[in-house]
């Protein structure tokens, strides 16, 4: 692997590590890590600050997954290298160096990665997420189910083993980061996300 690739990995990790939810929360005078669920993702930002702030965080978190992978596809033709970049972006968001290796749950950033890898797969995955959310009202459940299916969908539609493994690892990280949500879902204490 060339030096440029290693520098690209470091850059991807640092960009993905930017905790936009925390930063925007501070701009509004709130520490989102101490409010609501304590997560720095768009859902908690929406709950604690408002819809506009939540949408902004969602877009920014999505872009920090999309942009590194999108450009990596043109800079590094080997899908193995693109796959490494894809996983690095999710790791950066979930284990941010700026948050003492804590971070978000990887859903928006992971979806950004998925869009860059395959728009068709991302669209199908989003439909699964949306359907689950509309039926259950749980963002966490929708995220867990959609991410769990994403690697299966990409395997059947794309068929590239390197990319499939990358999406599988990413979905596994997202699943693990939702462990507390899973406990609350099982216990019936998870909060539904409902707009008034």
Structural write-up:
- The structure is a single chain.
- This protein is mostly helical and 196 residues long.
- It has one domain.
- Helices cover 74% and strands 0% of the residues.
- The chain contains ten helices and no strands.
- It has helices spanning 3-17, 20-27, 42-48, 51-75, 79-94, 107-117, 119-136, 139-157, 161-177, 179-187.
- The longest helix is centred in the first third of the chain and has 25 residues, at 51-75.
- The mean pLDDT is 94.
Please outline what is shown here.
This protein has helices at residues 3-17, 20-27, 42-48, 51-75, 79-94, 107-117, 119-136, 139-157, 161-177, 179-187. It has 196 residues and is mainly alpha-helical.
Keywords:
globular, 196 residues
Task: Break the fold down into its secondary structure elements and pairings.
Layout: H1 3-17, H2 20-27, H3 42-48, H4 51-75, H5 79-94, H6 107-117, H7 119-136, H8 139-157, H9 161-177, H10 179-187
Helix pairs in contact: 1-4, 1-5, 2-4, 3-4, 4-5, 4-6, 5-9, 6-7, 6-9, 7-8, 8-9
Termini separation comes to 52 Å
Shape: globular
Radius of gyration: 16 Å
What summary fits the major beta sheet? Answer: none
Proportion of residues in helical segments: over 70%
* Total beta-strand segments: 0
* Percent of residues in beta strands: under 5%
Number of helices: 10
Quote the average pLDDT: 94
Residue windows where pLDDT falls under 50 for at least 5 positions: none
Question: How many distinct folded domains?
Answer: 1
- H-E order: HHHHHHHHHH
**What is the SS-derived class?**
mainly alpha
Keywords: Acyltransferase, Cell membrane, Lipid biosynthesis, Lipid metabolism, Membrane, Phospholipid biosynthesis, Phospholipid metabolism, Transferase, Transmembrane, Transmembrane helix
GO cellular component, one term: plasma membrane
Pathway: Lipid metabolism; phospholipid metabolism
Main location: membrane
